[in-house]
Amino acid sequence: MSNSLFRKKSLSKIMQDAKDGVSDSHGGASLTKVLNVRDLTLMGVAAVIGAGIFSTIGQAAYNGGPGVIFLFLLTAVTCGFTALCYAEFASRVPVAGSAYTYSYVTFGELAAWIIGWALILEYSIGNIVVAISWSSYFNNVLEGMNIHLPAWLITDSSTAKAAYEHAVATNLPVEGLAWSTAPLLGSWKVIMNIPAFLIVVLITIVAYIGIRESKRSANAMVGLKIIVLAVVVLIGVFYINTDNWTPFLPNKFEGVLKGVSAVFFAYIGFDAISTTAEETANPQRDMPRAMIYSLIICTIIYIVVTLVITGMVNYSEFNHIADPLAYVFDKLNMEKVGYVISISAVVAATSVILVFQIGQPRIWMSMSRDGLLPKKFAKVHRKFHTPSFATIVTGFIVAIPSLFVESGIVTDLTSIGTLFAFVLVCGGVLLLPKVDKESKKFNLPYINGMIIVPAIFALFCFFFRDKIGDTFVNLATIDHERILFLIFLILSFAITVATIIKRFSLIPVLGMLCCLYLMIEIPVKSWLVFFCWMGFGLLVYFLYGYWKSKLAPKQA
């Protein structure tokens, strides 16, 4: 059984399955190849420049001060290493499926399933969070137009109850609150987030109709976002007070790292590019370029915008500010600019939902082609040339929870799933069979890591010597954060030794190490939920996928 758990698909087999994936059982249609490097780059920008820059950037700036730009740089470098590894895979395996397909080639079926299941967490939970954020911004826009939706139609019951109890405890008025005004259905208070539900339904329809329509919508929204952000910078630069940049690191680097989940959540969308490989005219050439281009563009935008808003308003004012970009202009009595920013935030969140709703069905389609999910998930619509059934299921999985799920859902779960996928993608590149460089359009630069990686590990141990000493001295004390740090030390030491022995390439190794470190900065409680999710996924695999896999031995 151990051998069958790690059964692998060859590169030639995956390429052939992609061609054969349009059999009668899959609907007899193929995906339309209409995307080019510009479309892919804009798709990456659409996914990355979303809710993060309009909401989570504020709390990250509060924790880290203006120096939070270092976290954007660290995250961008980490994603850059990973993007180069994705690009190598995309050049070698230009089919849909993203990290799932790549892991199937290098680590085997069990690892591929785990990654596929983790990506479901990334895309689904991530989109629920963005949909709820979209609803909040959309309601703000309506309020600016003197359109007032009932409070019980724009939130969830948990948030509504908490707001009511807080009002009662602090002797604040409760009239107009969702918990007070919600109609009753028996003993159940009817409280639901209708705008979040509707935007997911509408975006799912767009994703269902076709990639060409989705492409046009995403490109238009990206154009509007970039224009608005350019206006923010051009106006805001005249109101910068450099005294607000002092101190630059008020809470030292520990404060900067508190924003890991929020900042990394903003970056995860770039891997959605790889899910559209079969709809790209020249994936081996265009996908690597688009990944790098989108990361560079987004990092520059994040750093410039962060410096501008922390220069306009002191970082200490951003605590629990949901709309920091609009806030800084309202603070300077430029409410009209703030209102325009709120509108663009709605557009930004819409583009993120669209890209994620495109990516998730294509991962399921790949898993279905391999037999790990029912055949229905691989069906391609004859007219629209999209994975129709998988798109509908994705819409239900995101839309229904967005009606009721608490708006305070943390982004940590999404970040864990993504970082986990990134680690395996970087590690997988090291296991790919060598081929002639002329046979592919992108080549990951080879830099021997046998000297540089040990030097980096030694420097890490030197700068973190106090934390390492504390971890070993208090090893008997059950502290989950110390356990995570110790696991990182063991893994990084093992990777360093393997790099020396095997002469591994530097870039994939640095990608693994950076992603592993960012993972241990995520709170422990989110790890517990992540392990429960993965345990449920393994149960599904052993009850269905293991036996139905196309690589499973056939009974006589």
Automatic annotation (TrEMBL):
One of its GO terms (molecular function) is amino acid transmembrane transporter activity. It holds the Pfam family AA_permease_C. It is a multi-pass membrane protein. It comes from the Bacteria. It is found in: Membrane. Residues 506-549 form the Cationic amino acid transporter C-terminal domain. Keywords: Membrane, Transmembrane, Transmembrane helix, Transport. This is Amino acid transporter.
